[in-house]
Amino acid sequence: MPEAAVRQLCWRDFHRQVLAAFPRLADAPYRPGARDGWDPDPTALHAWREGATGIGIVDAGMRQLLQEGWIHNRARLICAGYLVKTLGLDWRDGAAWFARHLVDLDEANNWGNWQWTAGTGNDTRPNRGFNHARQAERFDPEGAYRRRWGPS
Q: Which has more confidence, 152 or 93?
């Protein structure tokens, strides 16, 4: 089995153990003292959900989610990071949206990864962020993904 697949299985199992120990993983910050106040912006949340933020790599991921019910892990991280770190919106709204649309939903992994991205989870680097432009350059340098899932 490829190393990357083993790593993902380890994360899945880890998040299942975290959920077993902390049943409120879906609705409360795991890390004591972590940020719990987020800026509400229904317009920005709606644009993110619809893949209409104007950020190509984010919009591509969100459109793929809506059309296929699946997106690659890297696109999930980019989209999640944009919602919580760039827009400052509540990770729970993003996690619930993913939970509603993902055909491969693993609840523990979904909530655990959203908390990790938001900096509220069991992580020693709560200020981590994803630069969407750098991520697009690194993982979609020719723009094929953005073109495929761009506006019709």
A: 93
| Domains in the chain, number | 1
Provide the whole-model pTM.
Answer: 0.92
Q: What CATH number does the domain containing 46 carry?
A: 1.10.579.10
pLDDT score recorded for residue 124? 66
Residue 15 lies in a domain: yes
- 32 lies in a domain? no
pLDDT tens digits for range 28-74: 999 877 787 788 999 999 999 999 999 999 999 999 999 999 999 89
- The encoded tokens of residue 88 equal 């400052």
Residue 19 CA from chain centroid, whole number:
18
Domain that holds residue 72: 3-22+40-148
∠ Cα 23 93 69 (to 5°):
95
Q: Using alpha carbons, list the distances in angstroms from residue 16 to 10, 13, 37, 63.
A: 10, 5, 26, 28
What is the distance between the alpha carbons of residues 152 and 150, in angstroms, rounded to a whole number? 6
| Residue at token pair 């459109």 | 63
pLDDT at 49: 98
Q: Is residue 29, in this structure, part of any structural domain at all? A: no
- How many residues are given for the chain? 152
Distance of CA 119 to the CA centre of its chain: 12
